[in-house]
Please model this.
Amino acid sequence: MNIQNLSVLDEEHICPTCKTIMSCCEVPPVHVGDGLGWGSEVLFICLNNDCPTFRNGWDKVDVEYGHKASFRNMQLPGSTEENVMMVASELAFTGSIIDPKEMREQNERYMAEKKALAALETCLQDKDITPVMTLILDEAANISSRQQAIDLLIEFNDLSCIDAIRNHTFNKTDLEQKCKLIISQLLKDNFKKECPHCAELIKAQAKKCMHCNTDL
Ligand SMILES: [Zn+2]
Ligand SMILES: [Zn+2]
Model:
């Protein structure tokens, strides 16, 4: 999930009944036909099971509506208006709690991916390999974007990409394989090889590594 308006993550809502901090929860997908849209991506809900609103709600609902449910105090972002919403179980909404820190990180990653993808077309002219590497090394990025980035490596002909790729753990073996092939090609194009002992780049025809002195 990506929240459009990140400022809601800075909000703190205190339950008017039990005075504990309300949890920021993702709004459950609602059927448009139900007319239940909240006009918000998140809701602040008091998930304290000792909150009187929740604790006393079961009897109230039973008496008034004759079914098993209770209430949770709820507030919309940017508002301190007191609302309650009916919940059928103690667990309702506990699976959709948003961790503001995690959400910010997720958003940051997503924005970085978007920015890198936008720069991909012009990065060769700009001689800027950063967007290419951002996409290749981002395991959460879109696969075809990453593939597109890998395809640009040969044209960049920049051996500095090798270390970053070798030190990265790929979840997708096909991407890793593709990168390995490209590294071999780059080394070949530049008459280089990697020392099998210290991994430093050396001349393809070297008999001795200039970095670790190993005979090859
Ligand atoms: Zn409460
Ligand atoms: Zn060496």
About this structure: DSSP finds seven helices and six strands in the chain. The chain has two domains: 6-96, 106-203.
